[in-house]
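<derive_structure_tokens>
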Amino acid sequence: MAFRRRNKSYPFFSQEFLIQNHADIVFSLVIFILIGLMFEATAKTAILFIQPQYNVSTLSPEGEVTLYQYGWKDCATILFYFFITIILHAVVQEYVLDKVNRRLHLSKSKNNKFNESGQLCVFHLVSSVWSLYILITEGYLLHPSSLWENYPHVHLRFQVKFFYLTQLAYWLHALPELYFQKVRKEEIPRQLQYICLYLLHISAAYLLNLSRVGLVLLFLQYVSELGFHIARLFYFTDESHQKMFDLWAVSFVFTRMVTLTLMFLAVGFGLARAENQGLDWETGNFNTVLIRPVTTMREENCKYLTSVHDDLFLWYCYYSRKYYNHNPHQIFGQNF
């Protein structure tokens, strides 16, 4: 695999060299780990990075099933897929978004936001389809009570654990991408906000054994965000394309209502009536009077802040110009 050659060459290990060639460097690290699988002396170490750990075999009506728990070795797996997401980010950027940008001739500020929405659009699409597939195959949609029954959900199926590990890897990779993509200083606080909030939400759901509820909430969140970023991309290609924001506004309100209802149903009703109340680190039980309301507020704050960040507020205000007859660029300047 080789990325396109750049016209300029920079000194080795200089800042520009690392930025221009970071995907190739990371790809070399991935190959190095994969080569470790070929040798018996290093295979056990290399497998820690590639395959989820802490598997336990149990008997079920379907036969022997392999389930997974979490532990510190997950950090190695997250690191490997952290590298993978950096490579995929570079592929989407160079072979899709950069080609579109050359045709659109956008300004620098719009170009940065176009790249941001393009990357997030791909990620939200994949994550939405993936999470929906898990919800269907695991039966969470047909049996909503399974979201809180038999808590704590310490044992996870492979696809559930792998989903959470890759989600953490993606949002962790978004932090160095702020440097690699040369994001403007005024844009960094806004992007840092929703990146950190996603990491907080996903980590808490994973570590507090609320993986089932977290999976549903992530699906709702990603569907809403997907609609926004698709509408945003259409707007950047042609400012007359505004109908997509009407569809996104409907999905935004719907997903917020479902999220709020689900949180109070699962946490406020389901877990509150569960028999196993109390904090137990050994069994992974965090169903306490103190943690439940904190979890509810954390989930809602994360969902609200990651969705209604600065750009979404600007788009809402942009729509209001039809009634107030204001130009959004005059109101918000370079932030729009």
